[in-house]
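Message: Just now I want nothing more than another pair of eyes on a protein record. I am handing you a single protein, as its sequence and its fold in token form. As I understand it, each token names a local backbone shape. Take your time, and here it is.
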Amino acid sequence: MRILFITVLLAAFAWAAATETPMILRPGNGGSGGNSTFYAEVDASLGTIAMYTVEGSQLTRQGATNFLIDLEILEGRPYDDRNGEVFSTLRVGSGNWDIPSEMLLVKALPDKPTVKEAAAGLKPLRDRVLQAETEFWAKDHPYDGVVRAAMGQTAIMICVPAKHVLMFYEITDRTKAPQLAGWRNYGADLYVPQSYQSSPLPQAILDALPNDIKKDQKEAIDAAFKAQAEGGGSAALQTSDPWVSAGTLDRFVLIDEANKHIVSYEFSGKKLMMKSARNLDVDLLIPTLYKSAPDENAEFNQYLQANAKLLAAARIVLDLPAIKALVASKKVASSKVSSLQATAVSDEIVVKFVDLHKIFVYHLQGQNNGLEMVSMRDNTVDVGLALQDVELRKPEFAAVILGDARRQLGQHFPKLAMRSVIFALKIYPCAYKDVEKGPLAKDLKKEAEWQPTLDAAMKACEAEMKAREERAKAAQAERDRKKAGGN
């Protein structure tokens, strides 16, 4: 086993909370091989894990346990005194791990500073991480009721983000209460600089990156090192709130968006293994696609050819920066929607970073039976072309509805016709220029809503034209950035 240390990316980003995971669990979260009549219910407010079976029309309660009492004992029970620092049983983790959390930190992290670290006045990564761990465990982290859970074939994984702990409960005998089989301080796993038993190698990705992205990466690293040096040198983690799931053969996955890590674990009998860890920093640098089709340039050019007449009529000059500017301008932000969306089917994990418009596919049992990033796609162009298509066809939609208004007027339904005009101008406000001079004006001018509708449409049209100008500026800024980056 070995850890690859490339360039350490430690820039801090403000990420939204990860998507919640189900609290009604099935083996493998519905993956292949799961027993559809066996369920577990996790009550985060009470700390209970209750087992149930469904046979025909009967729901039968099986064993139950409470993970909060286990958590309290593990956190409060002292394990060792190391140079005056008390290590709790929770921090150290159980002894049935193939690579304990502490060993990962002490033996795997570099003990000499890189040139960049030395230039910034920073200690080696190992020292900064150990300092961060000391700072984290020196503070009280009250249980906040936030729990993530996943169910494999023979174990349930409970994740308590506030305390950086994973607890594994064996459920081999499904008529008895789940038995605590091991626990782990998963915070240690989030410090893996680049990859641990994971593919493809980060360096292969970095070597293929465009020049402008490499430049941005270097600037981010320099800024992160400077911020760490000014902040006392600690390599502290961001607030953790991960998404977890289970695959087949009791292989589990944890994705921590805030700390940009994906980690896989395996429960085998009573033995626990941290199979793979991957820093998502490098994966997220991939600009467009990795083993994905169609190529965005081919997709874009096909769209240009198919819509050449409409684009010319609308006087729209379209390129990839313009499409990306359109997507950015249309986004509706919502605190209720997570910036991380993920799903698991068997050992295939599909992850969408919503704010970045990037979709990744990972295999839990990929190359060398480790975590493998098998495919990636930035779907900005995919959704952007769909948005542009709507923009191009708004005049057509409005024209159809205005045709309805003329027919309704001919049938002596002026109120209905007015409602159609209102709707048509809502879809495409700039049609007001034709409406106020067209045949509808003669009979509908006397309607009380006529002039207010045209006035509102005129303002909306002006706003849309201004938005187009802003998108054009954003697109030009992106073109200039690409040019300056030598890409």
Summary: Confidence is low (pLDDT under 50) at residues 1-18, 30-36. The chain is about 40% helix and 25% strand. The longest strand covers residues 58-66. The CA atoms of residues 398 and 424 lie 5 Å apart.
